[in-house]
Amino acid sequence: MFIEELTQEISLENNTTEYKGKLDRDNVIGWLKTIAGFANAEGGIFFIGVEDKSHKVIGFTRNEVDKERNYFNNQVNEHLTPRPALKIEFVRYEIKSLERFIICVHVVSSPVKPVILKYNNIPAIYMRRDGFTNGATYEEIRQMSLTTQNSQFDILPTDELYNRENFLDLLTFYEEHNNGKEYTDKALRSLGFYDKDMHLTNGALLFKDDYDGAKTSITCSVFAGFNKGSERIITINRFHCNIIQSIINVCDFIYQRMNHSLIKTSTSRINIDAYPKRAVFEGIINAIAHRDYFLDGTQIQVDMFKDRLEISSPGSFYQGSTIGKTYDLSSIISKRRNEVICAVLVDCNVMEAAGTGFDKITEEYSKANENHRPYIFSTSDHFTLVLPDLTFESGITDDNELQLMYTPISNSSEHDDKVLSYCYNQARKAADIAKHIGISDSSYFRKKVLKNLADQGYLLTSKQSRATYYKTNIDAVKKQ
Fold first, then answer.
1. Any idea which fold 402-479 has?
2. 305 or 146: which carries more pLDDT confidence?
3. CATH code, residues 3-150
4. Model confidence over 37-58: pLDDT tens digits?
5. What is the bridge-based pairing of β-strands 80-81 and 116-119?
6. Burial state string for 319-346 with b = 16 or more CB within 10 A and e = fewer than 16
7. How far apart are CA 176 and CA 248, in angstroms?
8. Residue from 170, 182, 183 nearest 242 by CA
């Protein structure tokens, strides 16, 4: 039997048609690049179970076709970014009274290009042309970037169908924040949670009760000192769960570990939390709502230091906004990167359509002094909200504000962070360093702290007259 006997959607292999007898497990790139090439070009139809040259139908049993479909989906999910929109159909036929199937994959031209094939950590971009799939040229890659629609990750469709019973966490969360009101299917449909054919969007999938994929990864850490880099990590938790559970888990992590203090007045005692709970909640909502979900292999990072809390989200500010560092949070204009996710959070009354979350954070810190002002800094690949610890009396000063990254130090001391920060931009004498960090200029300090750092390459030394100067080695210690 030939494919022409089963379907009208046939032709010779060309720009929009490809045939495979079976998916080659030993040469995954050989067929994955065709899917990527279709997505980067005009789309196409990919038949599985049909010989490419003869068009002879090989087909699969019911059990075999299900396994082949699952293998195809797993490989596409693992190796293609962003995942192209696909529609998978089974074409049933009988031969000698036995039931057989072939797979017909409709690949849509991706609204977000280029679709990248990453295998063994090596990325590649492919283009379909003249019946063949080859590496994209520089001009093609440039054109893809220029003509890509301004699409967002969370509005792209998936193959999964909407089932209300799969979103109990979201429905409960909505009721809790809307005085017991029910979240209706109609309301979800109206904001693009799923389409007319009941297919969920990418954003909706992240709210599913059993979602535990990498797109919502969050790492929460508590550090003993002022910076990352040393081995003195008190605790670390990693969360992989749906968006609702992510919000709950991260807030609980912070609330359970932050410091508390008391201020005595003439008539009462005032309880102080290290971080105002409303500021923490707004910061977590902001990070989740505006995260760049196209960036695979990234995560939201929540770090608690001795003097501050940092909430860092993958992706710069949306639509190219770069602000560097600012204390004027109210000046930041909110632009939605994820329409579906933001719309759901607005419906749940945990995010405002006007984007006033940063105003609320500023309000919570309105009575704090200069060293306890929250701020935001943005780079090309992430943005970070910094909330000072209100129970840390000195607040965030210039020296411990400098954020450094370095590999763990053998025989490290509690003074390493401050030494490396103080010497980062200027060479210093041992006596000045000791005075700055508040200890005596002892032989112990010189040998166990300065010499230890110098011997391992974290500090550079130079002699001027009889004095030794110490300068942080910027090849070993990096600013964040």
1. Arc Repressor Mutant, subunit A (1.10.10)
2. 305
3. 3.30.950
4. 999 998 999 999 988 877 888 8
5. antiparallel
6. eeeeeeeeeebeebebebbbbbbbbbbb
7. 13
8. 170
Say if residues 144 and 114 touch (Cβ distance below 8 Å): yes
CATH 3.10.450.50 fits 220-237+252-327+350-397, yes or no: no
Between 98 and 145, the more confident residue is 98
Q: Which residues contact 330 (CB under 8 A, 6 or more apart)?
A: 358, 359, 362
pLDDT score of 261 more than 80: yes
Q: Span 164-192, mean pLDDT?
A: 96
> Checking DSSP bridges between strand 17-20 and strand 44-48, what pairing results, if any?
parallel
Cα separation, 117 vs 222, in Å, equals 36
Domains of the chain, residue spans: 3-150, 220-237+252-327+350-397, 402-479
Give me the pLDDT at residue 334, please: 63
Cα of 203 vs its chain's centroid, Å: 13
pTM score of the predicted model: 0.61
Report whether pLDDT(431) > 60: yes
Among candidates 157, 88, 77, which has minimal Cα distance to 118? 77
Neighbours of 411 (CB within 10 A): 11
Using pLDDT thresholds of 50, 70 and 90, give the confidence band for residue 324.
low
One-letter amino acid identity for 193?
F
Taking CB atoms within 8 Å and a gap of at least 24, the contacts of 212-217 are 212/240, 212/241, 212/242, 213/240, 214/240, 214/296, 214/297, 214/299, 215/293, 216/240, 216/241, 216/242, 216/243, 216/246, 216/288, 217/298, 217/299, 217/300
The reply to whether domains 3-150 and 220-237+252-327+350-397 share a CATH topology is no
pLDDT at 119 over 50: yes
The torsion angles phi and psi of 273, rounded to 5 degrees, stand at -90, 150
* 340 three-state secondary structure: helix
Band of pLDDT at residue 424, cut at 50, 70 and 90: confident
Evaluate if residue 150 carries a pLDDT over 60.
Answer: no
Contact 105, 45 (CB under 8 A): yes
